[in-house]
Amino acid sequence: MTSPVTVPGAKVIAGKSVPGSIEVEVEAALPGNEYNIALSDFTIPGFKGSDKFTQFYARAKTEMTGGFIGERLVASDSDIAGARTELKKALSDKLANRAVAEIPSGWVMYQPGTFIDLDEETDGTAGAESDTVVVRESGRLRAIILDAENLRTYTINHKLQSVDATPYKVLGLGKMTFMISNPVQFSIDEDETFTFSLDGMATLVADIPLEPLKAELAGKPYSERANVFRKYSGIETADTELSPGFLRTFPASKEKINIIIKGD
After folding, report:
1. Are residues 167 and 91 in the same domain?
2. For residue 168, with 0-12 CB atoms within 10 Å meaning exposed, 13-18 middle and 19 or more buried, which class applies?
C-alpha cells in the first residue's frame, strides 16, 4: 500500500453486525522474489493481546507475485500497442471470413452492416522467468443479413415498376454499397428497425422459358409474333427472321425454331 486508506466501520444489517471493508493494492516493502507469497491473511501486530487482533485483518484476493532483484526485459507501450493493432486486424479479418462462410443460403451480408466487439488483455511483463509478453484479443461479430429474395423482388419492381418479377434474377446484389441511414446513432443492441440504402450497378437477367415460347410461336402467322412476345415480361426486344425469306408463318414444328438470347 503506497498511501493511507480509511476502512469503514461495521454496520448492523438485519440485526447482524457486518464488518466494514475496502479493497486496496499493496506492494512489498523491499524488493526480491522472497516477498512473492501465496494467498494469505494479514493481522496488525500492534493489536496483539487484544480482541482487535482477531477482529481486524486483511485478506489477499490474488497471489502476490512479480518481486525480483536484477535486470528484466520490458515491452514498451508502443510495442504492445503495435502488437495489439496487428492482432485486432487479424482477429477482425478472421471473424469476417467466418461470418461470410456461415451466411445462410439465400441471405446477403454487407461489411457496413457488421459490428465487431473486441476485448483486450495483456499478461504481465517479460522478466526474470519469462522473456515474452502475452497480448490477447477476444471478440465477437454480429451482422445484419438481408433476405436475397426480398432484395431481388424490390430491385426489379423498383427498376421495372409494376412488371412481374418472377422471371428475373439480379446479378451483383452482393457487390452493391450498403449504408445505414443513421450509422452514428444506430445500435445493433437497441434498435429493432433501421433505414438503409443500396447503391451500385446490378444486372437484371430474365429467365425466358424457351421451350414454351417455341411452342407458342410454332405455326403462328409471322404478323402475330408481337402478341406472343408480349406474354413474356422478360423480353424487351426481339428480332425475328424466317428462312427462306418469303415465308409468312413460323414452322409448325417447334424443333425447327431456333432462339438465341442476346448476351449468351
Report:
1. yes
2. buried
Q: What is the pLDDT of residues 68-111, one digit of tens each?
A: 888 777 778 888 889 889 999 999 999 999 999 999 999 999 99
Element (H, E) at 89: helix 77-101
Reduced to 3 states, what is the DSSP secondary structure of residue 245?
Answer: coil
How many Cβ atoms are within 10 Å of 182's Cβ, its own excluded? 10
Residue 171's SS3 state is: strand
Q: Which residue has 444489517 as its cell numbers?
A: 13
Q: Identify whether residues 201 and 83 lie together within a single domain.
A: yes
Q: For residues 172 and 251, state if they share a domain.
A: no
**Residue 201 sits in the same domain as residue 217:** no
CA distance 71 to 104: 55
Residues 261/208, Cβ–Cβ less than 8 Å: yes
Residue 197 lies in a domain: yes
